[in-house]
Amino acid sequence: AALVNLADVAFSAACDVDAGRAEALANRHGAKPFTDLAAMLKDVDAILVGTPHPLHAQAAIAAAEAGVHV
């Protein structure tokens, strides 16, 4: 994840419906794992959506409704 190299960016959370994948990604970057998008959105200022294309809208809309930058 190239974003972790930016000075003003903190990789603070990773979310996946598969807890093992969420935890693996979070551990790799010193982040907190989540399996529930709504719960994660309470902990972050912005998200990068890395879901399969048909699922992008669902995550982006949920983030926007929660006041989280997409």
Structural features, described:
The protein is mainly α and 70 residues long. 37% of the residues lie in helices and 9% in strands. It contains three helices and two strands, in the order βαβαα. A two-stranded parallel sheet has the order 1-2. Strand 1, helix 1 and strand 2 form a beta-alpha-beta unit. The longest helix is centred in the middle third of the chain and has 11 residues. The radius of gyration is 12 Å and the shape is globular. The mean pLDDT is 93.
Which terms would index this structure?
mainly alpha, globular, two-stranded parallel sheet, about 70 residues, 3 helices
Helix/strand layout:
Elements: E1 13-15, H1 19-29, E2 32-34, H2 37-41, H3 56-65
Parallel strand pairs: 1-2
| Spatial gap, N to C terminus | 16 Å
Name the helicity range: 25-40%
Radius of gyration: 12 Å
Q: Structural class of the secondary structure composition?
A: mainly alpha
Strand order of the largest sheet: 1-2
Helix and strand run? EHEHH
Whole-number average pLDDT? 93
Q: How many separate helices? A: 3
**Low-confidence blocks of residues:** none
- Number of separate strands: 2
Main sheet? 2 strands, parallel
Q: Please, what is the oligomeric state?
A: single chain
What is the 3D shape? globular
Determine the strand fraction and express it as a percent band: 5-15%
